[in-house]
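TL;DR need structure tokens for one chain.
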Amino acid sequence: MIEVLPFMVVTFGFVVMSLCRMVVIVVRLTRFVRLMVVRVLWSLLSGAARNERDGD
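>> reply
TL;DR here they are.
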């Protein structure tokens, strides 16, 4: 059991590092996607407002 312990600790550390990296990537992606969605919605809303003003 003592011989297997270091391997388990290294594996656990590697898994934790991978999870942290995944979380960081997901957070960055969600921020980027949110910015893109806000920009698209803003452009659509401003475009609709412009069309309504031109209609008048």
